[in-house]
Amino acid sequence: MKLILAEPFKTLWAGRDAFAEVEKLDGQVFRELAARRTLRTEVDGRHYFVKIHRGIGWGEILKNLITAKLPVLGAGQEWDAIQRLQELGVPTMTGVAFGEKGSNPADQHSFIVTQELAPIVSLEDLTMDWVKQPPVPAIRHALTVELARTLGTMHRGGVNHRDCYLCHFLLHTDQPVTVHNIKLSVIDLHRAQVRSKIPRRWRDKDLAGLYYSALEIGLTRRDKLRFLKAYFQQPLRQILGEQSALLAALERMAAKLYARKQRYGDAL
């Protein structure tokens, strides 16, 4: 069993069964499934997000593996990803409670509690009207560079997201957003993977997912080049020469995701 508690939960749950206590938390429920529950709760005047994972069963595990999907077995993946991102200096959530019990992955019980990030706006919401109402060019450029720098640091540090879309990057708005004052935090890391070095396949999936999610915000060729330069941290001439196959593949992968969205909606 693993159990890590910081305040206020260290005091709140002292001498109690944390796994039972976390199940008692209530608030605004965002997801309610047999194997997972996500909610926003308030404790001592502060808001937190709670994710509770219950065993998904061997049937669901095998179903995921047969369809070439890696199942999410518990809260450990998100906790580990948060710790690695903090080591890398990538802004993300702050975990204040984590618990995991059960050696059988099919019926493991785990949870993670993180502090709410606020005030923020997701890049998906921020860019929704960019085609009709373009932002100040300097801000657009700075956001593009910071997004690329953030993802590049993640990937070089061994973390791939697996749900890498604009909606999972949050812009902090507690201070006026200027070219020199842009902070992005990465969220929803329950599917993230942490390694010493990520395989190219998973890197490319993240890049394609992010590109797909930005297809309707009015991207220009210069936006794409600016992103690539900041992501790879290399001169554009070198990138275009060495990464031509990757860039062509990303176009195909993003187009495939977009076509699927047109057929099935947002259920990717």
From TrEMBL:
SUPFAM superfamilies: Protein kinase-like (PK-like). It comes from the Bacteria. The active site is at D163. Belongs to the protein kinase superfamily. KdkA/rfaP family. This is Lipopolysaccharide core heptose(I) kinase. Pathway: Bacterial outer membrane biogenesis; LPS core biosynthesis. GO terms for biological process: lipopolysaccharide core region biosynthetic process. Kinase involved in the biosynthesis of the core oligosaccharide region of lipopolysaccharide (LPS). Catalyzes the phosphorylation of heptose I (HepI), the first heptose added to the Kdo2-lipid A module. GO terms for molecular function: ATP binding; kinase activity. Keywords: ATP-binding, Kinase, Lipopolysaccharide biosynthesis, Nucleotide-binding, Transferase. It comes from Pseudomonas yamanorum. Its EC number is 2.7.1.-.
